[in-house]
Design goal:
By secondary structure, the protein is an alpha+beta fold. It contains five helices and seven strands. The protein is elongated.
Amino acid sequence: MKKFSLGCEYEHEFEGWFADADAIRQQLQAGLLDCPYCGSTNLEKRLSSPNLSTPKTKARIIEQQQDALPTAADPMPASESIAATSPSAALAPSVGEGAAALRIAVRALHQKIRAEFTNVGDKFAEEARKIHEGTSEEQNIYGTCTAEEHRELSEEGVDILPLPELPPEH
């Protein structure tokens, strides 16, 4: 496997692993690759530097990976939230390195939620309260709520989780 640098028409740069230069050329021509930042399929192979494995480069890579991980202080959009009513329903995807891995994990998370949870739309806050109070059937739900509703639910002890926004499809 070889690492190649790629870029899109909007000057976003990223890397990808391919079997060889022919594999990257074939995938680019077939439109199978897209920019992990904006979704553009108008990509080009860029100049790549050799990957030399030294203790110094290994330390730099580890530092970059740790810097890329989200922290508790990073804001998440509160527009769409989920309520998991059992510990086994916890959905913490394993996020690998880079924006592309994060985008894939977010897409998989959304697919899992849409397949296994009930969409209650803009009635999310109301339904989550009913489930929390025991006046409605216990189930895993998702939907939308305002930032104010999200804050109120959290203050009331309702266990909810904001979903990261899904990048647009192209």
